[in-house]
Structure to design on (236 residues):
């Protein structure tokens, strides 16, 4: 299996997921077949293993891959795959992109509220871990975007409802290119620091176990995110 290296200007996890997904859909990776190891994929694509993990997470959200603890990732059987797919190129249409972002808003706001009520100590530790990655030395790079997506998945996981994880994970991966777009049209230092501050507010609100406060923090973040990429969305 020969994967070509990904160009640096692209959003790496989404592009890698798309390439592996084609291999699965077109049968070059057979149903039930184990995917190459993270190490092999990282080497083949010329990226870090954390980027590969994000790509695998996207494929799992799409129902193309299942992961088995300590064993690896496997292509799902045909009958287990999702009927709903949104191709990345479909989102080149601004109206389609706006509609998907609009769907994200109520889901993520409610997820924050539920996370405030249901999170465990382990969930809070995961939020802290992803925040630390967002604040780290790599925050100016692709790794900062990877950490941003991981934070939103951690919030979804903290709800205790796996469907939030599935749907929010799927949507977040699809709109992840918006984060790159926002970085491209703004002063990078400013947008990164503002985004980090918004995520800290969400984490702290969840930690207080106040669902209203958590929902407000997430709403504020999503409103700011929409403005940073020039989207006008209906109020919620």
């Amino acid at each position: 299996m020969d994967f070509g290296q990904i160009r640096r200007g692209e959003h790496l996890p989404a592009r890698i997921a798309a390439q592996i997904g084609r291999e699965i859909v077109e049968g070059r990776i057979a149903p039930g077949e184990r995917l190459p190891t993270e190490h092999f994929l990282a080497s083949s694509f010329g990226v870090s293993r954390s980027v590969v993990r994000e790509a695998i997470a996207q494929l799992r959200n799409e129902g193309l891959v299942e992961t088995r603890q300590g064993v690896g990732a496997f292509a799902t059987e045909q009958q287990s795959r999702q009927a709903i797919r949104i191709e990345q190129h479909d989102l080149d249409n601004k109206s389609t992109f706006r509609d998907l972002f609009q769907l994200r808003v109520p889901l993520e706001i409610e997820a924050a509220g539920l996370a405030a009520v249901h999170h465990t100590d382990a969930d809070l530790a995961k939020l802290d871990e992803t925040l630390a990655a967002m604040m780290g030395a790599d925050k100016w790079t692709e790794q900062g975007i990877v950490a941003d997506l991981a934070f939103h998945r951690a919030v979804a996981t903290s709800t205790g409802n796996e469907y939030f994880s599935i749907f929010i994970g799927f949507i977040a991966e699809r709109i992840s290119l918006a984060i790159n777009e926002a970085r491209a049209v703004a002063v990078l230092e400013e947008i990164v620091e503002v985004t980090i501050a918004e995520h800290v507010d969400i984490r702290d609100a969840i930690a207080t176990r106040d669902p209203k406060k958590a929902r407000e923090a997430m709403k504020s973040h999503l409103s700011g995110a929409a403005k940073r990429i020039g989207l006008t969305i209906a109020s919620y």
